[in-house]
Write a structure and sequence with these properties.
The structure is a single chain. This protein has an eight-stranded antiparallel beta sheet with strand order 5-4-3-2-1-8-7-6. The radius of gyration is 32 Å and the shape is elongated. The chain has helices at about 20-40, 45-60, 135-165, 175-200, 205-210, 265-290, and strands at about 80-90, 95-105, 105-115, 125-130, 220, 225-235, 235-245, 255-260. About 45% of the residues lie in helices and about 20% in strands. Helix 3 runs antiparallel to helix 4 and helix 4 (about 175-200) packs antiparallel against helix 6. By secondary structure, the chain is of the alpha+beta class. The longest helix has 28 residues, at about 135-165. It comes from Caenorhabditis remanei. This is Protein rogdi homolog. One of its GO terms (cellular component) is RAVE complex. Belongs to the rogdi family.
């Protein structure tokens, strides 16, 4: 029997081509660019408006109408004196007490009662009502940094208005996005610096205190082995008393008493600065992801 051969042919569809990775990257790049331009057109101005509203509140609390950017149109205000009772936080509550009257960032009057064995009754009591300027440098720096931030953000607002153009379309590009992002980062650094001025203590050295003019304005005068300092730490007004003692009494030859009082208006300022940092950081992250 004659054999028969059977031939089977099949037509398989062509193997699908693998995606072009370069094309996929280009698509992603185009999408990111489109998103970046959308952020510039719609999100930045809204964020700046919110940030400036909070900064405007800070300026009002700190009476910074004369320092802040005039484009904010902050109503001029006059500071009022506030009196704070500072109580000891180390050892006996009688070691140090102080009463300080502030006008904005100026000390108007300071009364101190500090434990001092050499004085009659064991306490040194004095009042300082200096005829020289006695500024709390940290509060002054806080105002300067916040004022600088208002100028930076108002300038950025004006830049956005310019880039928006008119009837013929806007001028937003990836380059303008990079520039705006850098400006936002610089603004964030300035706000962080402002925040740190009242959160981190900045103490004068003992040598600086010796030659600090208000130190010599206490009546009766400070004993030669006694120094008094005022500074801000964590939104608190702190009074520190330094007394030179024999090393047999204290290894470092220095006895330190401290008293403090919370400054509620600084707590409010910190809350607003935290909000500003939060909304600006969100915008920075959003823009960075589209670069």
């Amino acid at each position: 029997m004659e054999g028969h051969s059977l031939t089977i042919t099949t037509n398989y569809p062509q193997k699908p081509q693998s995606p072009n990775r370069l094309d996929a990257r280009e698509v992603t790049k185009i999408n990111k660019a489109s998103e970046n331009l959308w952020i510039q057109r719609h999100e930045i101005e809204k964020t700046l408006r919110g940030a400036l509203n909070h900064l405007k509140t800070c300026c009002t609390i700190l009476n910074l109408s004369a320092k802040s950017d005039e484009r904010l149109k902050i109503e001029p205000t006059h500071g009022t004196t506030e009196k704070y009772q500072l109580m000891s936080r180390t050892g006996s509550s009688d070691n140090l007490k102080a009463c300080v009257t502030l006008l904005d960032d100026n000390v108007i009057q300071a009364e101190v009662t500090v434990k001092y064995p050499k004085a009659g009754g064991g306490f040194y009591r004095a009042v300082a009502q200096p005829d020289v300027q006695w500024k709390l440098q940290q509060l002054q720096d806080l105002g300067n940094h916040i004022s600088r931030v208002t100028i930076m953000l108002c300038d950025l607002q004006e830049e956005l208005q310019y880039l928006k153009g008119g009837e013929h379309g806007d001028s937003f590009t990836l380059s303008t996005g990079k520039r705006i992002l850098e400006e936002l980062k610089m603004t964030m650094n300035e706000i962080a610096t402002a925040r740190n001025t009242i959160m981190l203590p900045r103490k004068r050295s003992l040598l600086e205190l010796c030659y600090f003019p208000p130190t010599r304005k206490f009546v009766p005068p400070l004993p030669q082995d006694q120094l008094i300092s005022f500074y801000i730490s964590c939104c608190r007004l702190v009074c520190a008393s330094y007394q030179m003692v024999p090393k047999t009494v204290h290894p470092q030859g220095l006895s330190v008493f401290m008293a403090e009082s919370q400054l509620p208006h600084l707590d409010e300022v910190i809350k607003h600065l935290n909000v500003v940092m939060s909304i600006l950081q969100k915008l920075i992250n959003y823009m960075s992801a589209t670069m």
